[in-house]
Amino acid sequence: MSTVKQEREPLFSAKNRKLLTNPLGVDNPITVQVLGICSALAVTAKLKPAFVMSLSVIVVIVFANLIISIMRNGIPPRIRIIVQLVVIASLVILVDQFLKAFVFDVSKQLSVFV
User: Fold this and answer.
1) Residue 44 has what pLDDT?
2) Number of CB atoms found within 10 A of residue 106's CB
3) CB atoms closer than 10 angstroms to residue 6
4) If residue 86 lies in a helix (H) or strand (E), which one and from where to where?
């Protein structure tokens, strides 16, 4: 009896590497959406404005999620998106006013993006 030896593909072949890395970058919709924000972060040449902008985005997202979650049952379905836009816009205005009051030099640099 002769045994047929099957060739096995190496673990780190180009095909396996592609299967492992594609979902992390190109084929990941969350990564692609987050990179949409990064264009604004790339324009900031210094660490302080980039840090303040990223912190501001996180604060707006967290509080918008919290406020909309609290109001979720009271919002009619027909105007839910409008209410969400109003909540987010209000929070962005509040963060912009806060930056103008306490970190004016950074606020001036970020004024294009707010």
Assistant:
1) 66
2) 20
3) 5
4) helix 80-102
Q: Pick the closest to residue 95 from 57, 67, 69 (CA basis).
A: 57
For residues 114 and 92, the answer to whether their CB atoms sit within 8 Å is yes
List Cα–Cα distances, 99 to 15, 48, 51, 85, 107, in angstroms.
Answer: 49, 13, 13, 21, 5
Q: Where are the beta strands (DSSP E) in the chain?
A: none
Give the chain's count of helices (H) and strands (E).
Answer: 5, 0
Evaluate if residue 33 carries a pLDDT over 70.
Answer: yes
Q: What is the pTM of this model?
A: 0.63
Q: At 2, list the tokens.
A: 């002769």
pLDDT-derived band at 43 (thresholds 50, 70, 90) equals low
For 110, half-sphere exposure in the C-beta direction (CA atoms, 13 angstrom radius) is 27
**Largest interatomic CA distance in the chain:** 85
Residue among 111, 109, 83 nearest 96 (CA): 111
